[in-house]
Amino acid sequence: MADARIGPHDSAGAPLPQLLCDVNALAAVDPVPAGALWRLAESGRQLDANLVRIRPDERIDTHTEPDLDVLLLVIAGDGTLGTTNDPQPLTVGSLAWLPHGSTRSLTAGKDGICYLTVHRRRPGMRINGIS
Length: 131
What we know:
- Strands 1, 2, 3, 4, 5, 6 and 7 form a seven-stranded antiparallel sheet that branches.
- This protein starts with about 20 loop residues before the first helix and ends in an 11-residue tail after the last strand.
- The chain has one helix at about 25, and strands at about 35-40, 45-55, 60-65, 70-80, 90, 95-100, 105-120.
- It is mainly beta.
- The longest helix has 5 residues, at about 25.
- It is globular.
- It has a domain at about 35-120: Sandwich (Jelly Rolls).
């Protein structure tokens, strides 16, 4: 009978940690693609993660996420996190917490921005609002 488990497992059947990608290499791709460059797609996961690039001076429109806290880590480029208070500058290495219920937007700087998001898994998650 075939083993129905997805991904590597140890001899006791426990899942093994695995290297997924090199985010720096993905962020350095030229010409610059926009949108999701990578998505966590492993079976049985409890998290979703995306590596996203926004082209220079483009933005993700103002929106409110009612259900999920999101961590956002800037990998390349820069931009501005819009909030209901003051805009927050984002540079390489910036780690932002976007709590559920918060209203935010994201505007790429002159070189664009590439960032990793991580949040609890929600089936059918899509990235919308890139303009």
